[in-house]
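User: I want to check something. If I give you two sequences, will you return the structure for each one separately, not as a complex?

Assistant: Yes, each is folded on its own. Here is the first sequence with its structure:
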Amino acid sequence: MGYQGLELWADKVYTYLETHSLEELNALFVDNGVAPLSLNALVFVGFRGNEYAQVQQRCKVMCEIAEAIGCPMLVTVPSPTETRWQLPWPAVVAEYVTVLRDLAEIAAPHKVRLSFEFLGFGWCTVRTPRGAWEIVQAVDRPNVGMTVDCAHLYAGGGLIEELDALDPAKVFAFHLDDLEDTCKEAITDNTRLYPGSGVIPLDEICQRMAAIGYDDACSIELFQPAYWELDPLEVARQCRASALKVLSPYFSIT
């Protein structure tokens, strides 16, 4: 058995649609028996000022694409701000509660859910599971949940124990990845590795995710430039084999 689902990188979808139709895109999934899991990502949704109208419009377009291909979810990403360290946390929460409620209204008619993904990078306004969970709870909309990404959890300084407080019904996406052995300041998307080949304590993360009752999709999210030089099919096989080795002690793989 191969992959059952695929998380779509939005920029690649836009490029494909320059020369193909939405019907052709949908046929790719149907013909290959693979489900589109999510469209990734609507980036930097907060603190946009006069540019926020562009975020709203992009959300609408992405939701229309998602609806057309039966994709149930749109990953949303918090923003950097120049005053990151001067912002009181209640102001950060208030901003994302307002924004995510608004975007949830845009997404609802298309039957699309929004999965809010904290980022572990130092410039990001929301860096930990606890922070993202506080925001998602305050948003209190049925189509708004959160993404847990192992690399961002490790990089962002959040405690692994923060996963224990999450409601699995509100964890809409789980990204499995690993990282090179660097200081956390040096972590970038490009330092990601196959699951199980780096320094992230994936066993503990998976154990805690299983303990809260998470039993949904898991996708492998890598941006390692060295892998781009390899045969894509071999990379896909290695990704799946690595993921199954990490996940199988804690989850029932179907």
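And separately, the second sequence with its own structure:
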Amino acid sequence: MFESDKIMFEIYRDKHYNEKFHVVYYTELNEHNKHIEINRAMAGESYFDGFIRDYKKDEAKQIIEDIVKQLNEGKTVEKADIREKLKNYIP
């Protein structure tokens, strides 16, 4: 697997504005948004990070979005559960 075949992501919590959880896909950022998105994530509290395969990334992103939604609804999502849900998409 090449470096370009995986996507680096992070789920983080905004500590300053609304304390909501967000996800950023670092390796998909471009020159127009990378500084803003990286600064937001760095100012937040990291919850989970890792890589997903580029192959079937849309399925993996949907799982991640569902996790973020659950966290924002106040549900507890353990890191081990996140790894389990993403196990078929992690390089």
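Because they were folded independently, the notes below concern the second chain alone. The beta strands are 6-13, 21-25, 45-53. The CA atoms of residues 52 and 87 lie 9 Å apart.
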